[in-house]
Amino acid sequence: MKAFADLYAALDETTKTNAKVEALVGYFRAVPPEDAVWAIHFLIGRRIKRLIETRKLAEWAIAEAGIPDWIFGDCYNAVGDLGETIALLLPAPVASSEKPLRYWVEERLLPLRQWSDEQQHQSLVFAWREMDERQRFVWNKLITGEFRVGVSQNLVVRALAEVAGLSAEVIAHRLMGDWNPEAGFYSQLIAGDTGDTDVSRPYPFFLAYPLEGEPAQLGEPAEWIVEWKWDGIRSQLIRRQWQTFVWSRGEELVTERFPELQALGGLLPEGTVIDGEILPWKEGLPLPFAQMQRRIGRKVLGPKILADVPVVLLAYDLIEWGGADIREWPLERRRGQLAELVGSLASTGRILLSAPVAFGSWEELARLRTESRDRRVEGFMLKRVGSPYRVGRKRGDWWKWKIEPYAIDCVLLYAQAGHGRRASLMTDYTFGVWDNGELVPFAKAYSGLTNEEIARVDGWVRRNTVEKFGPVRRVKPELVFELAFEGIQKSPRHRSGIAVRFPRIARWREDKKAEEADTIETIRALSPN
User: Fold this and answer.
1) Which residues contact 154 (CB under 8 A, 6 or more apart)?
2) Per the domain annotation, does 335 fall within a domain?
3) Which terminus has fewer CB within 10 Å in the chain: N or C?
4) CA distances (Å), 243 to each of 21, 179, 204, 248, 316, in order?
5) How far apart are CA 242 and CA 350, in angstroms?
6) What is the pLDDT confidence band of residue 521, given thresholds at 50, 70 and 90?
7) Counting beta carbons within 10 angstroms of the beta carbon of residue 131, is it exposed (0 to 12), middle (13 to 18) or buried (19 or more)?
8) What is the rounded distance in angstroms from the CA atom of residue 369 to the CA atom of residue 364?
9) By three-state DSSP, how is residue 27 classified?
10) What angle (nearest 5°) sits at the alpha carbon of residue 239, between those of residues 235 and 241?
């Protein structure tokens, strides 16, 4: 645990990419495989579900620290992170643990789920007494399922590639899919060409960069294939060894959630992997993504929800064919083979080809882009003719040219402190719009302001707080902000009757007064349904 806690600190204390990679390489070379594999598990964002209720964790920490509840509460409000608050308040350790990460995870962390409250309490107290502050902090984050550090999966892949002497593409592929954090997996991960025995393993997704500026900068239109950009669940449909697997971009195996696609997979030739978008689709048109959320939020998919929200796979790319990895084929060759395959399966009604958009000039494409919302799409995908299917987000070959987001002016109603480095600043905001002369909460947003603007808003909130509800402050309804968002949907669960997707602050409208903010009627008029 000490080595892992030291690695966490090294990653957290620098913003330099090379320094992070160097720290990772040093760690993986120094620790045994059974520790390295658990470190990878946590560093790339895989988590163990919360094992102990937050309330119990706080109660036991208060008792161990010997402090009143109110002191703990004030410290938590100041720090903004439960794991860090506990690590800071606990007494000095009796000893410093040298036990490895594997021991703490497999013998002390995972068994907590089966233990009684008293056993959990005793185990935690003994663990805290064996750890220094740095180790306690990491341990607490693992217990709460909130472990995260400023390192991307790409950096972990780079470090492992250096340790193994392999390409980053090979390591990235081996890390995909469903694997257990065991020493044997780590040995296979960094070994030479051993062949892949996991028939379910997806490929790393190729991701597009947002297009900055106009598409004319990309050169001649003939060098590009353009598709509509759909709003669904990016996925891979895999058929290998007479089995079907559906993986989401978030590396979640979702085969059972989409029985229509499981049936479709049974019709695919052996050794086929299709990259595409799962869309809720009915009567020849995509349904709002909110309808997909209705479906994926259910544990049991009954006949009614399957009939109300059927899905299709909109096929973008073919990346395995006949059991062979064809990602290096040029795009037009992959698409040609994909078109033939989709054509042979079209009668199923469960798969559609993402057809190229016909256009003669960038000006014509710009005009077509204005039809995006009517077509229920987000804009365009631009893919260079001849491009291979790459790993991750790479500049140059694939771009997304999205339509401008919706934007409305709203009033700041509530604020509360953020978390982590923002724990001492008011950075989490609730905004409202006018409804019959009353401001009603409309959306929450946490991003979009500069550090300087955050500091100014923080000071204003503290000077203009009207009422407090725990950590939440109600403020004078004076500040106006422009809020941007991607989608809009009627929602009976919200007081405003409206739900939006991906809200964020576009700008601080210091030129406007609260009474000039938008009304709920203005927002309803934007809704396509």
Assistant:
1) 168, 172, 392
2) yes
3) C
4) 38, 18, 20, 17, 21
5) 19
6) confident
7) buried
8) 9
9) helix
10) 145
What is the separation of C-alpha 391 from the centre of its chain, rounded to a whole number of angstroms? 17
pTM: 0.76
Parallel, antiparallel or unpaired: strands 272-282 and 285-286: antiparallel
Same domain, 376 and 415: no
Q: Which residues contact 506 (CB under 8 A, 6 or more apart)?
A: 405, 407, 448, 481, 482, 483, 484
Residue 63: is it exposed, middle or buried by C-beta count within 10 angstroms (0-12/13-18/19+)?
A: exposed
In the chain, how many domains are there?
A: 3
In 10 A of CB 34, how many CB atoms?
18
Instruction: In whole angstroms, give the CA distance from residue 87 to residue 128.
Output: 8
Q: Alpha helix (H) ranges present in 165-256?
A: 168-175, 183-189
Q: Are residues 283 and 328 in the same domain?
A: yes
Residue numbers of the domain that contains 516: 406-526
- The pLDDT of residue 247: 94
**Paired tokens of 518:** 């938008």
Q: pLDDT-based confidence at 491, cuts 50/70/90?
A: low
What CATH number is given to the structural domain containing 511?
A: 2.40.50.140
Rounded to an integer, the average pLDDT of 4-33 is: 92
Question: How confident is the model at residue 529, as a pLDDT?
Answer: 55
Q: Which of 95, 115, 144 is the last residue of a domain?
A: 144
Amino acid 95: pLDDT: 67
Q: Are residues 463 and 328 in the same domain?
A: no
User: Environment class of residue 457 by beta-carbon count within 10 Å: exposed (0-12), middle (13-18) or buried (19+)?
Assistant: buried
Please give the structure tokens belonging to residue 243: 């089995």
Rounded CA-CA distance 300/133 in Å is 44
